[in-house]
Write a structure and sequence with these properties.
Helices cover 28% and strands 23% of the residues. It contains three helices and seven strands, in the order E-E-H-E-H-E-H-E-E-E. It has a four-stranded mixed β-sheet. The chain is elongated, with a radius of gyration of 29 Å.
Length: 179
């Protein structure tokens, strides 16, 4: 019986992560990993690249650019949040004879009305919109009245707005003359 002993030497390599990877690290970090893991999994799946001086400098430059963009974005969202904080928005709705609403006023309606009311903000990008997912309502709005709600923005910013649900004015009815 022969016993074959292999002299296996496990070496480590350094890689720069291109994506966040659970149990390993975040995008842009330099990590030491086993050669096989790096060459057979991380690099082929474009999760990481070999940590050369040029790759590290590219990543650092990209981080610097991203930080600048994030700073500009933060400034824009701070400006928007401060200007709409305390804004009052009237939403006309159809009601029944008892004054109850047909349906509810939802985040989608509020976002639509808010979009109409924020055109006064200078420097607002043309394609900027507030999505219904950013509107936080405590409970569905089913009655006429005033409600306070929150609009959430990136960078943990928020603005409080007042929603005033009013009865929609009925269009004037044409009287039919009897002949």
């Amino acid at each position: 019986m022969k016993i074959l002993l292999l002299n296996i030497k496990i070496t480590n390599m350094q890689v720069v992560l291109l994506k966040d990877l659970e149990n390993l690290g975040k995008k842009g970090e330099v990590k030491k990993v086993a050669d096989g893991y790096g060459r057979n999994f991380l690099i082929p799946k474009q999760i990481a690249v070999l940590a050369t001086k040029s790759e590290i400098s590219k990543i650092k430059e990209q981080e610097r650019i991203d930080a600048g963009k994030a700073e500009k974005e933060l400034g824009l969202f701070q400006k928007i949040a401060s200007q709409i904080d305390g804004l009052e928005i009237e939403i006309p709705v159809k009601t029944n004879k008892e004054g109850g609403l047909f349906g509810t006023v939802g985040a989608g309606q509020i976002a639509g009305k808010l979009k109409e009311n924020i055109s006064f903000i200078e420097g607002l990008p043309e394609n900027f919109e507030i999505k219904k997912e950013q509107i936080k309502i405590d409970a569905p709005i089913k009655e006429l009245g005033e409600y306070e709600t929150t609009v959430e923005f990136p960078h943990n910013l928020e603005a409080k707005i007042k929603i005033i649900v009013i009865e929609e004015a009925e269009p004037a009815r044409k009287e039919i003359k009897e002949e």
